[in-house]
Task: inverse folding
């Protein structure tokens, strides 16, 4: 029997992406002390806006990743509306990220990328 999964997206910059790559594309890195939550988002459009409009100016590049997580596990995290009706996130406390990573099904993949113009 196959587990039901939910597709999530994560906008990220080059430093975080390098750590994901170092994990074999299987896990998100631990949060920094100033990052109390890990927030994957529920739609690609929102992830694109963050990667393009925030990550590119902040670090020169922005990436949109897509990954699958066991739906039953995700039920513990209520959907957070962080703005308009399509601005939806899950808020995973930093101390639960290792357990969250254990419920990723398959690999984390880069589906879009944006770079600062030279």
Result:
């Amino acid at each position: 029997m196959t587990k039901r999964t939910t597709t999530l997206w994560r906008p990220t910059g080059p430093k975080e992406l390098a750590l994901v790559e170092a994990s074999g594309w299987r896990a998100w890195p631990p949060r920094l002390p100033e990052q109390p939550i890990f927030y994957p988002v529920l739609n690609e459009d929102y992830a694109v806006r963050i990667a393009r409009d925030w990550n590119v100016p902040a670090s020169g590049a922005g990436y949109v990743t897509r990954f699958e997580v066991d739906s039953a596990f995700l039920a513990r995290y209520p959907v957070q509306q962080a703005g308009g009706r399509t601005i939806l996130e899950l808020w995973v406390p930093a101390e639960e990220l290792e357990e969250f990573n254990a419920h990723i099904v398959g690999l984390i993949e880069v589906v879009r990328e944006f770079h600062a113009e030279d």
